[in-house]
Amino acid sequence: MKTKIILAAMAVMAALAVPAAAADSVSSNVCLRHGDVDGWGARDNHSMVVNDRFGRKYLVSLAGICSDLNWAFGAGFRGLGHFNMAGSCVDRGDHVVMAGGGVSRMDNNSCWVTKVQLYTKDMQAADRLARENKQPLTAY
Q1: Which of 2, 4, 39, 91 is deepest in the core (most CB within 10 A)?
Q2: Which residues constitute the domain of residue 52?
Q3: pTM of the complete model
Q4: What CA–CA distance (Å, rounded) separates 102 from 65?
């Protein structure tokens, strides 16, 4: 049984393999606009899945102390200049601002965006498979 699980995971990972140049070009064209954010969920302590008002899902990779992400009732993004215009894209270096659920004020400025990419159906399937098999989630 373990062999089948490992083979299935390898097949999913092979399907997700994208040449580095192609991955860079895809992620550079992605724009999650601040004004379009319409829900989110913590994927783990280093990433979150954010929905926009058009039904698209984005995987937002994070760095820093993001431990309160699982407990926050609300989250948003603050641009580097401490402002964000509704039409600007969430980008590398933007801070995650969390509220409610016992979020510590100290940690609320120490979690920032490192990458924004579309959260594809293949990524969702790989995450689902990893959770079902109690395996760590893949870093994308």
Answers
A1: 91
A2: 29-121
A3: 0.73
A4: 15
